Amino acid sequence: MMAELPILSLKRAEITAINRRVKAGDIEAQAQVQHLFDPYPRPLECFTCAAEIDGHPAIMFLPEKKEFEWMMAVPICLECHELPPLMRWAKALKILRKMWPGVHFNFVPPR
Ligand SMILES: [Zn+2]
Questions:
Q1: Domain boundaries in the chain?
Q2: Taking the alpha carbons of 70, 33, 94, 1 in that order, is the dihedral positive or negative?
Q3: Which pLDDT does position 111 carry in this prediction?
Q4: How many A from CA of 78 to the centre of ligand 1?
Q5: What is the helix (H) or strand (E) element at residue 96, kind and residue range?
Q6: Which of 39, 65, 75, 83 is most buried by its number of CB atoms within 10 A?
């Protein structure tokens, strides 16, 4: 069976709020993020390396095409999750450029 790569669209404000709670150690917020992709059948596909993910994916938030209000949430595998953030962003950007040729990305990755 082919792995699925669902891409969720979420309000940037919601993501900022939930990230803040996750960083503060809010267990409920952590669970909410961890279960984002529960409705989708396994295996999921890692956005950045296309590896198959059987369990809970790690989540990466990315800019939506030209829409500052919205962001995308994509599943990534643990290996990609553990990459240094700049390498992870470089991989994701490469894919976004393929998805949306000609789009200029102008954003600062979260630290
Ligand atoms: Zn991966």
A1: 8-99
A2: negative
A3: 47
A4: 7
A5: helix 85-99
A6: 75
Neighbours of ion ligand 1 (CB under 5 A): 46, 48-49, 51, 77, 80
Whole-number pLDDT of residue 102: 82
Q: What is the pLDDT of residue 59?
A: 95
For CA atoms 105, 108, 110, 111, the dihedral sign is positive
pLDDT score at 84: 96
Burial label for 94, CB within 10 Å (0-12, 13-18, 19+), is exposed
Dist. CA 104 → ligand 1 center (Å)? 24
Peptide bond into 43 cis (omega under 30): yes
Which of the residues in the chain have pLDDT under 50?
A: 111
Quote the tokens at residue 97. 């450029």
Cα 80 to ligand 1 centre (Å): 4
pLDDT at 87: 95
